[in-house]
Amino acid sequence: MNPQKIEFQRYRDFGQIINATFEFLRENFKQLAKAVIYLVGPFVLLTGIFGGLYQKDLFSFTSTVKSLSEFGIAFGLYIFFAILTSLVLVSTVYSYILLYLKRQDDIPIEVDEVWLMVKSKTLKILLFSIGYGLVTVFATVLLIIPGIYVSVALMIIYIVGLNEDKGFFDSMSRSFYLVKNKWWFTFGLLIVLSLIQGFLGFLFQVPQYIAMFVIAFNSVDGNGTDSITEIILIVTTIISTLNFIFYAISLVGIAFHYFSLVEQKEAKGLLDKIEAI
User: Fold this and answer.
1) Would you say 196 and 22 are in contact if contact means Cβ atoms under 8 Å apart?
2) Can you tell me the distance from the alpha carbon of 49 to that of 219, in angstroms, rounded to the nearest whole number?
3) Shortest CA distance to 115 belongs to which of 92, 94, 131, 139?
4) 197-208: per-residue pLDDT in tens?
């Protein structure tokens, strides 16, 4: 870790948030990647395995008599571990950021430190995700536009709840307050971060697309799927699942945006500097 730490608590414009995101990821790549590999990696692997089994069943479904329940087991496990992977990734990235903010020395943040915080934060992330989903669905049922507004406004709810140690409803209220008059800015930032994340993630999905094309082509010829192609499909699906990791880009960008919003509305960073004089 570099001696000059990146300051989170400061106002940043659109471009500065993007630059700060990649600067943070570059300077903390080794330690953050290690934490993600150790803590999120097992869930990524399980997601990839069951995703591959689901894809295999999908291609063999037309040529093999299967019950719908048997067909859905792999898909259900794939969805379960995909959700679990997302939750642990959110908890890991934000736990690392919180540790980074508290760090007063230059000693690298170790995996066991992140793990201790992840264990205490993941349940909160899960409950927030359930609340986030219910509120967004409810708003969408009422009208599509409020649903979009709510989903964007609540993108900072995780870092709000973790950094300020608030419950779900307090964090939701706080998120709406901070994003007020900055909704379009937030929406645009999420679009840009998602495009960057999607482009990088697509590179990991190319092998799976190739494998799916080959297997589909063989199926059309009546060859079906043999054990070799099935293994290839499972392996390439595991590789493609690694694109989950690129979600860390959006998480870090959202964290910088949150601190920038706090600084704009409350000048917390400036007040802390004045008090420190």
Assistant:
1) no
2) 22
3) 92
4) 888 877 766 766
